[in-house]
Amino acid sequence: MKRILLMCLVMFFFSCYRPDPPRFLDVEKHNEMLKKWKELNIKNYSFTYSFDYWRVFPRFKVIGYVTVKDGKGKVVFESNSWENELDTLALEHAYYYITNMEEVFQHVLDQNEKNKQDMTKKKLQCVWYDDERYDTKYFFPKYIYYFREWYGYKPNPHVGGNSAGPTEKFEITDFKILE
Fold it and tell me: Residue 54 in contact with residue 145, Cβ under 8 Å?
């Protein structure tokens, strides 16, 4: 019984741990990867991106399918994606609208800068970029995950979870070079 209690306490401790101080995007690495991506000079490609965003409740996912031909891109959103929730997301339309890989790089930088500004303005207590992965062959941001803690945020115990703010996962899958 003591062993089970000790294991539960250890698991609780590590599940609540957040690093201190804040951890932001590694901008130097990000810019290095952007330079390598541009050097490849790929003009025809496709990929799928997704934003998985949650604050314990509500949670939503945005999925976009991008096709780029001769450097010009077009995105089509999955039918059960954010387009069905325009009332709540209309003001953030541009945030989810990405039509090429350069916009992916810019989006990641813009969000990092917004998080820094929100920290400076005391809207956020802390930000942790917990995971950043880049494609090893084509250098684009393949997976970015971060957690934000707002000042004064109190999670709803009836909804579940002990998160102190929203988290977001941005992911790129199905990258293909087109003829």
Answer: no
Q: Give per-residue pLDDT as tens, 75-127.
A: 887 755 444 454 445 434 577 789 999 999 999 999 899 888 888 887 777 77
Q: Residue 53 in 3-state DSSP?
A: strand
Phi and psi at residue 117, to the nearest 5°: -65, -40
Specify the DSSP class assigned to residue 80.
T
Contact 45, 176 (CB under 8 A): yes
179 DSSP 8-state letter: -
Residues of the chain with pLDDT under 50: 13-19, 56-57, 81-84, 86-88, 90-92, 155-164
Per-residue tokens: 44: 């025809």
In sign, the C-alpha dihedral spanning 50, 162, 159, 23 is negative
Query: Which ranges of the chain would DSSP assign to H, the alpha helix?
Result: 2-16, 27-40, 86-89, 93-96, 101-120
